[in-house]
Structure formats: structure tokens, C-alpha cells
Specification:
Length: 177
């Protein structure tokens, strides 16, 4: 009898977590992304096989600038991403302006301002997140931002000559430094 009672009480926290609203799970994760909290939050709120997509599916050149760019998996992928972001940038502001959900899907929108630790460049960006939560765990998380501005915050020098309009001349971008 005692064994049965212990088993039932052990199942209660898991059952309670699984019954939480997806929006609450994502909100709790986002409230715990500081380097000293993200590992525990990821272990608690992220499924072992969860997919994290940061900025791109796969861009080797961007990954050289922002090593977390692309696809990663599991709680370690989530905690590594947020730990690296905090190492590369000083987070000056992060505001969620809208968050809503439908079924397992959660959408988050907001703005942030980061300062590059290496070169001191400040930039602000809108962001959006699409997340999926099943049984109280995040199983999918896609984070998008102004990738041009975030990568440019690490630029020390150089520019690009680009041609976007077939009927117009090429022009130079990134001359600021």
C-alpha cells in the first residue's frame, strides 16, 4: 500500500507540469535565461529531443559570427545558446510586448537592445519566437531577430559592395567603422 502511495505522489509533479498551459511554460523559460538560471530551466522545461532554431536553419558563415546560429537540440542546446548570447553581448534591455498561444503553439514578440562585449557596438532589434509545447515541455523553439544588425554589432571594419536592383548601380554598405 505504501509503495502505491509513493508512486502516485511521485507522478503528481509530472502530471502537474504536463497540464500547464503552453504559454506558461514558455514564459517561465524566458524568465530564466540568465546564465546562472538557464541550465536548470532548460532541464526542467525543455524536452530531451527538442529542436531550437536560432536565426537560420544552417548558415556556416553566420555560425562563424554567432556560433549558436542554426539548429540545436535538447536542453543543452537551449542553455548553450542563451549562455553564449550573454557572453557575447551585454543585454541592456529585453521586452516582451505580446505573447499568445493556440493549442501547443506559442508566439512571442518584443524588442531588445544588446551591446557587443568585444567591440562595444549597441543595437536594438525586434524579435519573434514560435514555440511548441507538449506535455509541459518545450519541443520546438524558433527565435528570429534582425540578424544583419546582430552580426554587424561585431564588425570592426570592412564593407560590402552589393547589387540588389538589376537596373541600378551597386552600392556599398557597412562603411560606418
Amino acid at each position: 500500500m505504501l509503495l502505491g502511495a509513493s508512486s502516485a505522489s511521485a507522478r503528481e509533479p509530472a502530471k502537474a507540469a504536463a497540464s500547464r498551459a503552453p504559454i506558461d511554460v514558455v514564459k517561465e523559460f524566458l524568465e530564466n535565461t540568465a546564465p546562472d538560471k538557464v541550465d536548470a530551466a532548460a532541464k526542467r522545461l525543455v524536452a530531451p529531443d527538442a529542436t531550437y532554431i536560432s536565426l537560420t536553419f544552417d548558415n556556416p558563415e553566420l555560425k562563424k559570427i554567432e556560433p549558436w546560429a542554426g539548429k540545436s537540440t535538447g536542453p543543452a542546446g537551449f542553455s548553450t545558446t542563451f549562455s553564449r548570447v550573454a557572453k557575447y553581448w551585454k543585454i541592456e534591455d529585453f521586452k516582451i510586448t505580446d505573447m499568445f498561444g493556440s493549442g501547443e503553439n506559442v508566439a512571442v514578440f518584443g524588442t531588445f537592445t544588446y551591446r557587443s562585449v568585444a567591440v562595444g557596438t549597441l543595437f536594438s532589434s525586434p524579435f519573434s519566437i514560435h514555440s511548441k509545447v507538449r506535455n509541459g515541455k518545450i519541443v520546438y523553439f524558433q527565435f528570429m531577430e534582425d540578424t544583419y544588425a546582430s552580426a554587424a554589432s561585431f564588425r570592426q571594419s570592412g564593407s560590402w559592395t552589393v547589387k540588389t536592383d538589376p537596373g541600378a548601380p551597386a552600392f556599398e554598405v557597412g562603411k560606418g567603422k
